Amino acid sequence: MRITPDLVICSPQFTNPLREREIKLRAYKIPAIENLGSTQDQFDTIDLSDNEIRKLENFPLLKRLKTLLISNNLIFRIGDDLKDCLPNLHTLMLANNNIVNLQDLNPLCNLPALRRLCLIENNVTKQPNYRLYVINLLPKLLVLDFQKVKTKEREEAKKLFADGMNGVQVTSSQPNKEKITAIKAAIENAKTLEEVNRLEAKLKSEGGMDLD
Question: Which SUPFAM superfamilies does its entry note (predicted)?
Answer without folding.
Answer: L domain-like
